[in-house]
Amino acid sequence: MIHLVPLLIYAVALLLWIRLLLKGADVQDPAVPAGITGLGVVVHAIALGSFWTRFGELPLVGPGAALSSLAFVGGLAMVATLPLKDVGRVAIALLPVVMVMQGVALILGIRPSDTALDFQGAGFVLHVSFAFLGYQGLALAFAAGLLYLIQHHELKEKRLGRFFHFIPPLATLDRLGRVGVWGGFGALTVALILGWAWTVEHRGSLEIYDPKVLWAVTSWFVFLGILAARGGGGRNDYRGAVASVVGFGVVIGTYLILRVTVGGAGLFL
Amino acid sequence: MSLAVIGVSHHTAPVEIRERMAFAPSEASQALMTLRQEAGVQEAVLLSTCNRTEVYLFPAERIEVVQAWEAMLEVKAGRIERRIQDYLFEQRGDGVVRHLFQVSSGLDSLVTGEAEIQGQVREAYERAVGMPVDPPLAGPVLNRLFQMALSVGGQVRSETPIGEGAASAASVAVKLARKIFGSLKGKRVLIVGAGQTGELIVQALHREGAEGITVVNRTYERAAHLARQVHGQALEMDRLAQGLSGVDIVLSSTAAPHPVLTREIFRRAFPNGLRRPLLVIDIAIPRDVDPVLGDESGVFLYNVDDLRKIVDEQVRLREGAIPEADRIIRAQHEEFRTWYASLEVVPVIRTMRDRADEFRTSELERLFRGMDHLSDRDRARLEEFSHRLMNKLLHDPTVRLRKGIRGGGGSRLVEAARFLYGMEDHEHPDPGSGKARTKDDRDHDPAWGGSKEKRGA
User: What does the alpha-carbon distance between residue A72 and residue A44 come to, in Å, rounded to a whole number?
Assistant: First the structure.
């Protein structure tokens, strides 16, 4: 039940952001939706903390618990943007991602992993934490990219409507996307190295067809693709936004395909 | 309500008249001083902007004050074709409160919802507060009125979209640039042609931090002249491609009969395509910029029709917020009215008591005249009894009157009290000055059914 509370608060925060959007407001103070978003993340942290104290393990293993932690990292990314002028409005695109993760986590059940007692130690915790940071970096780049494309469209079509007023400037979104991609890429790279080291140490060798490994490596290449799109000549800001949105879709799609098609993915997120 | 506002505004006078009657800050201070020292005004605030010059007066009955103000405007106007009164408007009583609340909210502005007026109202109020006179020109009534007006203006802007969007070509250009580049600090601007609207837009961009302004014009001297004004550099027209490369914003306003910024020049300026967004604002008629450039990736091209459409949309958006803004104004207006009535009730209660005391004293005297046998002690007891009786009779009406005013009964209750105690045919106590008003005065007060709008009409 406690894990439902942050989801409900996120839902309220999202409604408040949408209300601000519908007002067509760019000068109105987003303090209330930002505050509620922050409150959701705090409550989410309390919920995950209670999981830890109750079951004696970090909520990093098992689909429900891991997804909830992943959603929490996404919440942290949002909170980091909230104090920055205009940037916090990216929450309107990031909150649904976080909510879907938390919602699916609740459906799957946020419970301890009885069978995975060897998932212990600082190396494993760091590996998972960095992986989550990597994925949330991508989610942040996706949110910034999506808003960039909408704002770009509004400007090209000369429609100075609600989206135009609400969404931050293109340059701000471009910078945020760049931070998300570079931060996410760095974190995922560290996570892959730590994961490889942990697996070799505990399992003797790395199983390349393990769905987690497949997903992580695919995601890493997606990051590379986005970075390539952001480099080079021409409009790299626009290309970067498109690549971030497409890349996020590819990562989510890959995850779903792997969960459905590859056996033994029970512990995989 | 003994308030008045008298002046000129964009509703009553064309710009050539308004600009003559505008008061610089030092002139406004001097005018206020004259109104106090020569005409004896009790409270006054002078608001002067490019769209209005008006003075708020309390109390509003002294004809000398009104005449002095009109004389000042006459002097400012100089020689004009029509009588000065033809351009003046006048509001009295309750209407003044509503007028000022609308002014501070931007509802009475030429461009609905414009933000500058709030600051101008604040300046006018602070000027009156800061005048070295005693008692202060922003006395209890105007002080309260202007503080509430500023609060109403803030509330309307924060709770409604009345101030949202951009409502002029220059503000649209700034808005567009900010939505593309975020901060305009350090952004480079190219101006093609040196028209007046273009100049306004460039100045607006410059204020936002845009730098590195390059002016290209058919006549180099004219380009150099404008460049000097905005601390930029001038180029000849044949070096347009050179000026174009490396800029973030292009503003074109030549009188050329054909496009000056063509795809060919664009290709020469950006041989490898654009690496970053480029905002192009074409305010020339016929258009200066080949429309196909709008299809280029990264080019955000806006022509004069686009800007006009955006301005119209923003104005519509703002006007849509008027009913909500009006609701806020009405609520605050009612609050002021209640406050004012609570001021009015004090002299009414005082008069009620004075009158009752008069009756008490005269009745006692009459009684004592036929009762010489009474001892001093008995007289004192009767006197005490009459006091107690009077107080008891007045206690409930007094308490209920005060309570009713606080509950929003306002002037109606005060009027009822005046009627019940027979004060309406005599004199009308003035809450601010303690002076009495005559019935004739009330005929000019909308709160009493009298009203004036445009003068000399």
Answer: 6
B314, A160: Cβ pair inside 8 Å? yes
B50 catalytic, yes or no? yes
Q: Is the peptide bond before B291 cis (omega within 30 degrees of 0)?
A: no
Which amino acid type is present at position A208? I
Among candidates B301, B285, B392, which has minimal Cα distance to A158?
Answer: B301
Residue B428 has pLDDT above 70, yes or no: no
User: Dmax of chain A from CA atoms?
Assistant: 60
- B18: pLDDT confidence band, cut at 50, 70 and 90? confident
pLDDT in tens, B105-160: 988 887 788 777 888 899 999 999 999 988 889 988 999 999 999 999 999 988 88
Contacts of B361 (CB under 8 A, 6+ apart): none
Domain ranges across chain B: 4-164, 169-317, 327-426
Residues A18-56 pLDDT 10s: 988 887 655 566 888 999 999 999 999 999 999 988 887
State the pTM of this model: 0.66
Give the type of residue at B457: A
Amino acid letter, B294: G
3-state secondary structure B323-373: HHHHHHHHHHHHHHHHHHHHHHHHHHHHHHHHHHHHHHHHHHHHHHHCCCC
Q: Does the domain made of B169-317 have the CATH classification 3.40.50.720?
A: yes
B4-164 has CATH 3.30.460.30 classification: yes
Q: Is the peptide bond before A6 cis (omega within 30 degrees of 0)?
A: no
Report chain A residues whose CB lies below 8 A from the CB of B297.
234-235, 238
Token output for B369? 């005249």
Indicate the residue of B163, B182, B272 with minimum beta-carbon distance to A169: B182
First-to-final CA distance of chain B: 24
| DSSP secondary structure code for residue B61 in this structure | -
Cα angle B314-B319-B323, degrees, rounded to a multiple of 5: 145
Which of B165, B272, B297 lies at the smallest CB-CB distance from A160? B165
Half-sphere exposure at residue B448, Cβ-oriented, CA atoms within 13 angstroms: 17
Q: Contacts of residue A236 in chain B, CB cutoff 8 Å?
A: 275
- In sign, the C-alpha dihedral spanning A79, A82, A87, A91 is positive
Contact between residue B4 and residue B79 where contact means Cβ atoms under 8 Å apart: no
The catalytic residue among B50, B133, B292, B393 is B50
Residues in chain A within 8 Å Cβ distance of B306: 158
